[in-house]
From TrEMBL:
The lineage of its organism: Bacteria, Bacillati, Actinomycetota, Actinomycetes, Micrococcales. SMART domains: ENDO3c (SM00478), FES (SM00525). It comes from Microbacterium memoriense. Belongs to the Nth/MutY family. The keyword Lipid biosynthesis does not apply. Residues 37-188 form the HhH-GPD domain. This is Adenine DNA glycosylase. Its EC number is 3.2.2.31. Its cofactor is [4Fe-4S] cluster. Pfam families: EndIII_4Fe-2S, HHH, HhH-GPD. Keywords: DNA damage, DNA repair, Glycosidase, Hydrolase, Iron, Iron-sulfur, Metal-binding.
Length: 290
DNA sequence: CATACGTGGAA
DNA sequence: TTTCCAAGTAT
C-alpha cells in the first residue's frame, strides 16, 4: 500500500485553510462546539455561528447554566436543531461528571450526548493530540478512491476506522496532521463532484486514477425530498418559536396556514417528543428544563 | 441496520 | 427547476 501520509502532510502544511478551530490553543471546548456544528453543515456556514456561540458561552459550565431554550435559539438556522439540544446536554454532562473539563478519553467522549465515532475521535485528536483514526465523509471518499480504487465510498462502517487506522503514521503529531490533511484533501481537492485531480498531491499513487477513473457505482442512499416533508414542517414550527418575541406562543398561532394541518400537528408532537418544544396550557415554548 | 433529522449554496 | 451535498448521531 502506498504511503499517503508524507505527501499529504507536506501538502497540508502549505495549503490548509485558515479556520478558527485550527488556531493554536483553540481549546477543547471550542473544538467540541465546532465539531457539533460541523456535523452535516458546511464550514462556511459554521464559522460565524461558532464565534458567536463561544463569545456567549466560553466554557461548558456557562452553557450548562442556561436553559436549553437559549441553546436552541442561539443555534438559529444552522439546521438539525437537536444538535443544539444535545450540545447543551453534553455541556451539563461535562459540568456534572467531568468537573467542567471536556474529557480526553474516547470512551468518555462517546458517552456524552450527541457524540459519536467521528466527533469523539476528532476531539481526542485535534484538541488533545492523541493518536486515533478520525473518519468523516471526506476521509471515506479519499480512502475509497486512493486506496480502494472506487469512485465513491460505500455506506459508513466500522471498517472505515480500521482502514484509516492502518494508514496512520506512528507519531502522534504526524497522525493528527494526517487525519486533518485527509479531511482537507477530501473537502477541497478530492471532492464528491468534479474532483481536482490535477491539484492532488497523491495523484501518482491513487488507485482510482491508476484504474482510469472507473464509475464503480454509488451505494449511498439519496436524501428524501425536503419540499413538503415533515422535516420542513418541523423547521417552520421551530423557527416560529425561535423568532417569537414572547417565550410562550399559543399553539393555534404556530404556522396556522400550513397546507396540511395534520402534518403540522404531527410536527409539533414530534418536536415535543424530541424535547425541542414544551407544551403547557395550549401554548408552546422552547425547553426550559434539561 | 435503515431511517429520520434542517438549511442553504452550487451545479 | 431540480438535484446534490455538506467535518454525523440516535434509534
Amino acid at each position: 500500500m502506498p504511503d499517503l501520509a508524507a505527501p499529504l502532510i507536506a501538502w497540508y502544511r502549505r495549503n490548509a485553510r485558515e479556520l478558527p478551530w485550527r488556531a493554536p490553543s483553540f481549546g477543547a471546548w471550542g473544538t467540541l462546539v465546532s465539531e457539533f456544528m460541523l456535523q452535516q453543515t458546511p464550514v462556511a456556514r459554521v464559522v460565524p455561528h461558532l464565534e458567536a456561540w463561544l463569545g456567549r458561552w466560553p466554557t461548558p459550565a456557562t452553557l450548562a447554566g442556561d436553559p436549553p431554550a437559549e441553546a436552541v435559539r442561539q443555534w438559529a438556522n444552522l439546521g438539525y436543531p437537536r444538535r443544539a439540544l444535545w450540545l447543551h446536554r453534553a455541556a451539563v454532562e461535562i459540568r456534572d461528571r467531568h468537573d467542567g473539563v471536556v474529557p480526553r478519553d474516547v470512551e468518555a467522549l462517546l458517552a456524552l450526548t450527541g457524540i459519536g465515532d467521528y466527533t469523539a475521535r476528532a476531539v481526542a485528536v485535534f484538541a488533545y493530540g492523541d493518536r486515533h483514526p478520525v473518519v468523516d465523509t471526506n476521509t471515506r471518499r479519499v480512502i475509497a478512491r486512493a486506496v480502494a480504487g472506487r469512485s465513491q465510498p460505500g455506506s459508513p462502517a466500522k471498517a472505515d476506522l480500521v482502514a484509516m487506522n492502518a494508514l496512520l503514521p506512528a507519531d502522534d503529531t504526524d497522525a493528527a496532521v494526517f487525519n486533518a490533511a485527509t479531511m482537507e484533501l477530501g473537502a477541497v481537492v478530492c471532492t464528491a463532484r468534479a474532483p481536482k485531480c490535477e491539484a492532488c498531491p497523491v495523484a501518482s499513487m491513487c488507485a482510482w486514477r491508476a484504474a482510469g477513473y472507473p464509475d464503480t457505482g454509488d451505494d449511498r442512499r439519496r436524501q428524501a425530498r425536503y419540499e413538503g416533508s415533515d422535516r420542513q414542517t418541523r423547521g417552520a414550527v421551530l423557527k416560529t418559536l425561535r423568532d417569537a418575541s414572547t417565550h410562550d406562543v399559543p399553539q393555534d398561532a404556530v404556522i396556522p396556514d400550513w397546507p396540511d394541518a395534520a402534518q403540522r400537528d404531527r410536527a409539533i408532537d414530534s418536536l415535543i417528543a424530541d424535547g425541542l418544544l414544551e407544551a403547557s396550557g395550549g401554548h408552546l415554548r422552547l425547553p426550559r428544563e434539561v
